[in-house]
Write a structure and sequence with these properties.
Distance between the termini: 140 Å
Largest sheet: 4 strands, antiparallel
Structural class: mainly alpha
Number of helices: 30
Oligomer: single chain
Strand content: under 5%
Length: 743
């Protein structure tokens, strides 16, 4: 044929003495007998005469080696030629495996030729090119065949992965060879085995595996509503999807396993139950099938996807459902067994099964993760949505089924638990029922929910296996550590800027600290047995939370104090009040301070516990009064008119100061606290004495001093009183006499 001519042409170019392949054969035979003669010659000569010249012997030996080499090369060229001829014949008859094997033979001959050093034939390059061309030709034919065997009908690429696009994906598998091919055995087998012989199977299967994952297996795991359905026509098997109404967001592992099993069964039946190499007589057992190859390529990704999108969601979130999980483990085992029978899987217990069997630990991990996520969401939600708590409010809890007899505590709500504890204490040690209770105040509703979450998780812990119980206990501790770290940083700016939020945060911390005192106590029966050092407690966290609340609130107090002093600094030192402009400035400063206090009194109203409220407002009013006293006591000259005006400024403070105390929304209830202002404002009496001095004559001042025993002496030192007398009165005998009495 053509190939023959081509090779002849090349032989003619490079070895003119050889006319044709037939000549070649006869010359090879001639050479063979030549060589035999030579061999005999050497041996006979040597036998007959050992003194033959070494030179002759060496020459003959080299000629022999040369001839042997030429002969072996010609033999290989002949093999190459024959292989290419037979390959062509087989390819025409679509005997793909045979054709591929002939190509491999030709390739081996060529390899041998190339390995001969010192004998670089130019013809080798031409033969190499020929082989490459024929291999590509064969791969092209096989590719065409493969494309008719497994046909993908895919949606346009822009809809990458959605339920929609999955609905448009189909896989068609050809089942019967068309008439003229029946001689070649099952078409699938021969095409795939030929790929294997040529070393191209891996690449082909890899692409197939990726399409299978992307368009069939993964969508089946991700979309519960997808159902695979199959249709068998005369010569083709079609696999496509229909969509049903899903009953749940996630399908159960059992359903998913069944769908995936169906896909593998179809592939196994129509495509992959093919041994990779032609059968060898004595080695029936060790044949690798395509299924195994494909399994190797996609199992890891498939099993990850099953774990992440199917098993993870099936892990129960409360301990009562753990019992039923046995089913899932069973069906995972069956799924693996089925895949092993079809040879997609080899080896034992895969990650998938390990994951399912390890459900207890996943349950705890999932529970902890859910709890921490929920807690973090609560911590980053708004602080200012509040709920009111009163001394008798506990934490509401759902009733959980009692996991162990005898421990009836769990059935009650925690407020009741707390209450019983208090009553017992009361009987023994006469502590008030409110020793452990919180004063009425407002806390963030998110913090109340956080506390409920902690209680629920601990209840769940007491109903769980030991390992899980320990994990959940530490998870609850983590919630509180997280609060301690997250809240002050996350809400930092608002806590500095907004006095109301600082107050709520203060309450939140005190509320948490309060619950931490008794939190471990309610669950001690169950927890202490497991946590061997009896560490089932949260008491160690209490001081930290109290400090956290205090520090934040004190920082806010410092800001407010700073603003009061800032406003009073514009009062021109309260000097020369007879000057209209100075008086206006001082009056404005005092109005602003009162306004600031009134606003604070409003934003903290009904938020802070009453006693904290009164202390805080008292401290701030005290800051203002104390500053005014210091400024006035430092004046060197106070005219009569100055004194009157200073008095009226002070009277404003004394009359309106107490009115900023409005701890409760009901006005009539605030009177009591306004009357108690002297209790909360340290400098209140000092301020009142200063007002008396501003209005008094010398004799009245001396009487108020009363030899250092009067009310004036209780508030001012002798030096301060003398300084005020010098500022208020002119230098007269009477003044000198009065000054002498102050000592």
């Amino acid at each position: 044929g053509e190939v023959c001519n081509m090779i002849n042409k090349k032989y003619n170019e490079f070895l003119p003495s050889m006319q044709s392949a037939e000549d070649l054969v006869s010359q090879v035979d001639g050479l063979s007998s030549n060589i035999d003669l030579l061999k005999a010659g050497i041996e006979n000569e040597v036998q007959r005469d050992l003194n033959v010249a070494v030179a002759d012997f060496t020459e003959l030996k080299q000629q022999l080696e040369r001839d042997t080499l030429v002969l072996s090369i010609l033999k290989k060229l002949q093999e190459f030629d024959t292989a290419i001829k037979e390959y062509n014949t087989a390819l025409l008859e679509k005997k793909y495996v045979a054709a591929a094997q002939q190509l491999e033979k030709a390739r081996n001959s060529l390899k041998m030729l190339e390995s001969r050093k010192g004998f670089e034939l130019k013809i080798l390059k031409a033969l190499g090119t020929e082989l490459t061309v024929q291999t590509q030709n064969m791969l092209y034919h096989l590719g065409e065949e493969w494309q008719t065997l497994a046909v993908w009908k895919l949606p346009p690429s822009k809809e990458s992965s959605s339920l929609e696009s999955a609905m448009h994906s189909e896989l068609h598998l050809r089942t019967v060879p068309s008439k003229e091919e029946e001689i070649a055995g099952p078409p699938v087998a021969s095409v795939l085995q030929a790929f294997a012989v040529l070393g191209e199977l891996h690449a082909k299967l890899k692409i197939f595996g990726q399409l299978l994952l992307k368009y069939i297996l993964k969508p089946l795991i991700s979309y519960p509503s997808l159902q695979p359905f199959t249709e068998e026509q005369s010569d083709v098997f079609i696999l496509r999807f229909k969509s049903t109404e899903p009953n749940l967001d996630h399908s159960s592992p059992m359903e998913v396993f069944d769908k995936i099993k169906l896909i593998f069964e179809v592939l196994h039946k129509y495509l992959l139950n093919v041994p990779l190499e032609q059968p060898v007589e004595d080695k029936k057992e060790c044949r690798v099938t395509l299924a195994e190859l494909l399994g190797d390529m996609i199992w890891e990704e498939l099993s990850d996807c099953l774990i992440q999108n199917c098993l993870v969601n099936s892990i129960p979130t409360n301990s009562s459902k753990l019992e039923q999980y046995i089913e899932v483990i069973k069906s995972t085992e069956e799924f693996e067994k089925a895949l092993k029978n079809m040879q997609f899987l080899k080896g034992d217990t895969t990650d998938l099964l390990k994951y399912a069997r390890n459900v207890n630990s996943h349950f705890a991990n999932k529970k902890c993760q859910d709890v921490i996520v929920a807690a973090r969401n609560l911590m980053t939600s708004e602080i200012h949505n509040t709920v009111k708590i009163t001394p008798d409010s506990g934490v509401a809890l759902p009733r959980l089924p009692d996991p162990g007899a005898g421990d009836h505590l769990k059935m009650q709500t925690t407020s009741k638990l707390l209450h019983n504890d208090m009553v017992n204490l009361e009987n023994k040690t006469k502590l008030s029922q409110y020793t452990f209770s919180l004063p009425t105040c407002r806390i963030s509703s998110s913090v109340e929910k956080l506390m409920e979450l902690a209680y629920q998780t601990l209840l769940e812990a007491t109903a769980s296996t030991d390992q899980c119980c320990i994990q959940l206990f530490y998870c609850v501790r983590n919630i509180f550590q997280l609060f301690y770290d997250v809240v002050p940083t996350y809400h930092k700016e608002n806590l500095q800027k907004l006095p109301q939020l600082a107050a709520i945060h203060h309450n939140n911390c005190m509320y948490i600290a309060h619950h931490l005192l008794t939190l471990g106590h309610q669950f001690r029966y169950r927890l202490t047995n497991i946590l061997c050092d009896g560490a089932a407690t949260f008491v160690d966290l209490v001081p930290g939370f109290r400090r956290l609340g205090m520090e934040c609130f004190l920082a806010q107090m410092r800001v407010q104090k700073g603003e009061i002093l800032e406003r009073l600094s514009s009062a021109r030192n309260f000097s020369n009040m007879d000057d209209e402009e100075n008086y206006c400035a001082a009056n404005k400063a005092i109005r602003q301070v009162l306004h600031q206090l009134k606003r604070l009194g409003k934003v903290w109203q009904d938020v802070l516990p009453v006693n904290v409220y009164c202390k805080a407002m008292g401290t701030l009013l005290n800051t203002a009064l104390s500053e005014i006293v210091t400024r006035i006591a430092a004046l060197e000259d106070i005219s009569a008119e100055d004194a009157d005006r200073l008095y009226s400024l002070c009277r404003t403070m004394v009359e309106e100061g107490p009115q900023v105390f409005t701890p409760l929304p009901e006005d009539d209830k605030n009177k009591k606290y306004q009357e108690e202002v002297p209790v909360y404002v340290q400098k209140w009496m000092t301020f009142k004495e200063l007002m008396i001095i501003l209005q008094a004559n010398l004799q009245e001042i001396v009487d108020q001093w009363a030899d250092g025993k009067g009310p004036l002496a209780a508030e001012f030192s002798a030096a301060e009183v003398k300084s005020l007398i010098r500022a208020l009165f002119q230098n007269t005998e009477r003044r000198a006499a009065a000054l002498a009495k102050i000592k």
